[in-house]
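BUG-325 | component: ligand-complex export | severity: low

The export step for 2,5-dihydroxybenzoic acid jobs runs without errors, but we want the raw record kept on the ticket for reference. Input record follows.
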Amino acid sequence: MAVQTTRTVEELEAYCARLRAAGLDAPWSRPGPLIPPKPTATQARHWRWRDIEPLLFESSEYLSPHRGAERRVLRLHNPGVPERTVAHSLVLAIQYLLPGEVAPAHRHSPTAIRFMLHGEGAFTTVDGQKCAMKPGDLVLTPGMAWHDHGNEGGKPVYWMDILDWQIVRFLENLTFEPYPDEQQPALRSPGRDIYFPWTDAYAALLKRAEQAPDPFDDVLLEYVDPASGSSLRPTVACYLQLLRPGSRTRAHRETSTAVYRVVRGRGTTTVDDQTFEWEPGDFFVIPPRARHAHANLGTEPAVLFTAQDVPLLKLLRLYRMEPAD
Ligand code: GTQ
Ligand code: FE2
């Protein structure tokens, strides 16, 4: 409500009605500040693999991948996020395929990044490049690249999908197109710009661990495009993180959002007033501006995979980091 007015409330309402009819709005006609503070939709949350696993296996009793439904995935659902995704900016899903199953070829504007979790014989074909996915391998599916998946092994397989779908949706640029056939032909071996084998990434992480640790992340290594050296996508960056045995990082806050998968080891992550005690297979999410610190409680190195919307925040000049001990 305006502070100073020579008009009555009824006159203001009539004026607002005329504004509406003209396609206009006066934000000062409603109570509250011009830019109201908004709590983050994304809440700090921890998912235990032992809770997820039986539900994932059961999902094959309800659905086979087919045209229309497209993918057998379970998404991490952050209760604060209306779109039922892990965070306001990112999607994290676990995709499960039985032996012989195929997830039909399609393409869409959001980017997907796959991190292989379990099993043998999984593949994804990205624009004619067939990638065999072994546990720990990362495959990038840039927006509008044709892709289909399959399981050529004898046992179930699963991997995780990270998508920038929420960002693309917010910008109202979601597009989706089925491929004319179930699968696209495999034409060539995968390029180094989309396929990041575990053996290479892990070796690079161990090498980085020989250098001085980072006070806030201990050992953090980003996956980068080999030609340009830049983040995998303008929207999302992926990293492997190693916490050395007994290490305890300094606390900090960042304006970006981070989702984590525990690859190996045990430890804790404190996010504001919660402490998550994680073990292999678990997931957790750190919302924007939350104070967070990690610790490895074990005698073995802990390894985490993390995807973060840092590059987008940087592009928008919104990325900030501050120590919070
Ligand atoms: O595997 O192509 O988790 O299109 C969500 C949308 C996976 C996929 C997801 C997708 C895919
Ligand atoms: Fe897809």
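Assignee comment: Attached the raw record above. The longest helix spans residues 9-21.
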